[in-house]
Amino acid sequence: MTAADTQIVPPALGEPYLLTPGPLTTSRAVKDAMLRDWGSWDGDFRAMTRAMRTGLLDLIGPGADAYDCVPVQGSGSYCVEAMLGSFVPKDGKVLVLANGAYGLRAAKTMEYLGRAFHLVDKGDYLPPRGDEVTEILKEDPAITHVLIIHCETSSGILNPVEELADAAHAAGCKVLIDSMSAFGAIPLEVERLKYAAMVSSANKCIEGVPGFGFVIARRDELEAAKGNSHSLSLDVHAQWAHMEKTGQWRFTPPTHVVAAFLTALEAHAAEGGVEGRGARYARNRDVMVQGMRDLGFETLLAERWLSPIIVTFFCPADPKFDFDAFYEAMKERGFIIYPGKLTVVDSFRVGCIGQMDEQVMRQVVAAARDTLAEMGVASAAPPAAALEERKKLAA
Ligand SMILES: *Cc1c(COP(=O)(O)O)cnc(C)c1O
Fold it and tell me: Where are the N6-(pyridoxal phosphate)lysine modifications (predicted)?
């Protein structure tokens, strides 16, 4: 890999940029890596699986030798379910810290598993805080694990993962992290966080294509997970034990996706690893947010909680603004944005991850400016109710 390989190359003619937090815009090299077939039992593919597991462990910093990486077929939610079902014993109890769709999905997963949980629902975007966790754990000594969503992708909030993990550990609980949309761009050093297990997937900050996710867990937790799982295909211990013994996945792996992911991992390293990747995403965010603010748009979140992954904007109050028309016009200009997920006010989201740099983000802002002009929207300022809502965040 040379520096030229890390250059951002626009997608093929007529293919829009995906300003969505996975699937996202991938490089030509990643797509090209899928143009050959692999035998899943063959030594070449086993070596690829090994290289991928090692490459991912390299991203968690010193102390990684106490951990191992277990890929799991399916999308990210399969991995969340695999993690909860494998590491939480049948008589365990999980404190689920939710502030958006993914936290609520984890709670729903616990319902399906039929295992005990305590849900803290902070609404659309307020961050759970360490002192509340301390309080709850004091009142409910049955809780054994705390599930933290690292970046809650539904609003783009970057949750205070260290503060939350510290509170959990102080009460003697184990920490599980859904770092789906953050891992690879935001540090998740095991030395600092000491999590029992975390999950992420191929099509987020490593910039691969969808098809599998992975669990990174302490080896002693992997050993202890034997017999916990409710599910044959989502049993992390069984997948790990089989992989250790044979070098193979238990059931058919997404071979092309793994090949693409290895190419993506090489590009990630060439860009400077977690630090380099995170820095590009942060520049993407800064340039895009500043440009959008200059047009009158306002972010849902205060500066402090803005992630470099995805940003939520309020829809303008101007009656001439119509989100569906805005979406279509942005798509025509080469950019697929993301509808919002807030319940109280209208919003939309713009992702900062994938094969895009600040040049591209400037084009995104220009496309938004032209689209507003075309729609006859004079100001992108949000309704007063939206700003009222946002004030709650500061409280
Ligand atoms: C993407 C994502 C998931 C998994 O979603 P899938 O659609 O199953 O891939 C889970 N949690 C978070 C925070 C995510 O961003």
Answer: 204
Q: Is the pLDDT of residue 240 over 60?
A: yes
Ligand 1 atom closest to the Cα of residue 78 is: 8
* Residue 55 · residue 107 · CB < 8 Å: no
Model pLDDT for residues 76-90, shown as the tens digit of each residue: 999 999 999 999 999
| Calpha distance 235→225 (Å, rounded) | 9
Please give the structure tokens belonging to residue 227.
């017999």
Q: Is the CB of 181 under 6 A from ligand 1?
A: yes
Q: What digits encode the pLDDT tens for the residues 21-40?
A: 989 999 999 999 999 999 99
Beta bridge partners of 68: 217
Q: What's the CA gap between 110 and 121, in Å, rounded?
A: 14
In ligand 1, the atom with minimum distance to the C-alpha of 203 is 9
Q: Which atom of ligand 1 is nearest to the CA of 152?
A: 13
Position in ligand 1 atom list of the atom nearest CA 102: 11
Give one word for 156, left, alpha or beta, with left for phi > 0 and alpha for psi -120 to 50.
Answer: left
Inter-residue contact 169 to 130 (CB < 8 Å): no
Distance CA 282, CA 211 (A): 26
CATH topology of domain 3-22+273-394: Aspartate Aminotransferase, domain 1 (3.90.1150)
User: Separation of 376 CA from ligand 1 center, angstroms?
Assistant: 36
Q: Would the CB of 81 count as within 6 Å of ligand 1?
A: no
Instruction: Respond yes or no on whether the N-terminal peptide bond of residue 187 is cis (omega within 30° of 0).
Output: no
Domains of the chain: which residue ranges? 3-22+273-394, 29-270
Pocket of ligand 1 contains residue 22 by CB under 6 Å: yes
Residue range 296-314: mean pLDDT, rounded:
94
The contacts of residue 42 (CB under 8 Å, 6+ apart) are none
The pLDDT assigned to 164 comes to 98
CATH: 3.40.640.10, 3.20.20.150, 3.30.70.1050, 1.10.3470.10. Which one for 29-270?
Answer: 3.40.640.10
349 is in an annotated binding site: yes
State in Å: Cα 157 to ligand 1 middle.
14
Mutate to test the pocket of ligand 1, among 153, 159, 204 (most ligand atoms within 8 A of CB): 153
Task: List, in sequence order, every residue forming a beta bridge with 348; answer none if it has no partner.
Answer: 313, 339
- CA 77 to centroid of ligand 1, rounded, Å: 6
